[in-house]
Structure formats: C-alpha cells, structure tokens
Specification:
Length: about 80
C-alpha cells in the first residue's frame, strides 16, 4: 500500500471540504486512476480537466504514485 497526501487548490478544496487529505492506495496506482476512483465523484469532473504536481513537480496523469508523495490537484484557471 502507498500512503499519499493530497493538497487541493481553488474550488477543488471547496468540493473536497478541506485543503489536505491523507489517502492509502494500492501500489502501482496512477494519478489518473486515483483521481477517477477517489476524487471524481466529489469533483464532478474528469481528471483531464485538472493539472497535477507531485512533490512540487508537474506530472502527467499516468504518473505512478509512490509512498510519501504529496499530490497537488489544481483546477483549471481562467482570467479576465
């Protein structure tokens, strides 16, 4: 099992009712699979609408989560 910390930004924090949460996922779980299984129901949007970083580095949703990773979930941003 892999233990991760997830940090939510912008409206993702509102939808998840907090800025950080701890999760335990099976070894070999990708960011996209984790998002689809654990976060998508609350987010109401698919993973491809978000950007992700792990340990302060941008990652592709296919990145495989490692024990102790800090995953940031960043919603799309628009300006005016």
């Amino acid at each position: 099992m892999v233990h991760i910390t997830v940090i939510f930004f912008s409206y993702a924090a509102d939808r998840m009712k907090g800025r950080t949460q701890e999760f335990t996922v099976p070894a070999g779980t990708s960011v996209a699979a984790f998002f689809d299984q654990a976060l998508s129901p609350s987010m109401g949007e698919p993973a491809h609408h978000f950007m992700f970083s792990v340990n302060a580095e941008w990652v592709d949703p296919s990145y495989v989560l490692q024990d102790g990773d800090e995953l940031a979930v960043i919603p799309p941003v628009s300006g005016g």
